[in-house]
Amino acid sequence: MTLIVAMFMGCTFNAMNIISEKEEGVALINEILPMTSRQYVIQKIFIGFIFGCLSAVIATAFCFQLPPAAAAVMLVLIVLSAFVSALIGLFIGYISDGVMVGVVYIKIVMIVFMAIPLLKYLVVAGNKVVSFICYLIPSSATFEGIMDPANDGMATAGKDIVILMVHCIVWFLIYLLISKRQK
Fold this sequence. Notes:
This protein is mainly α. 85% of the residues lie in helices and 0% in strands.
C-alpha cells in the first residue's frame, strides 16, 4: 500500500501545482504565452509523472528485494501507474476552484484508490464479477501487479500491465476530449 501512496504523490503534486497556478493568476499568463495546450499538458503530466515515479522507486527500493526480472516488471508497473496518477492530478487541478476543494478531491480519490484494492484483495478474491469491476479503478491493477513480484510470483503481472496501459490511454483520451470541448 505504501507503493500506491507513493505513486499517488504525483497526482497530488500535479493537482496542487495546477490549483496554485489558478489562484495566483499564473494560469492566465500561461494562456497567453506562446505555449500550446499540448505543450502545457505534456509539461504538467511530466512533472507529476517524474515525482510519482521517483517516490515509488524509492519506496520499492526500501520495501522489496527483487530479482532483476521482477524489478523490471515492477518498474513498468510504476511508470504506468505514475502516468495514470499524473493524469488524474490534471483532472483534479482542472475541476478544482481552490486549494481546499482540491485537497478534498485528492482525499476522496486517495481513499477510493486505497480502499478498492484492499477490499478486492481481502474480501472479494473469489468473485470474478466484482473483481472485474474493481479493475475500473487503476490502483487495483497496480496493487495486484505489485503483490505478484513481491510474493515471488509473476502470474498476473502481464494482465495488470495491459490493464494499466488501457487506463493510461483511456484517461488521456478523456482529458483530450474535455480540453477540446472547453475550447
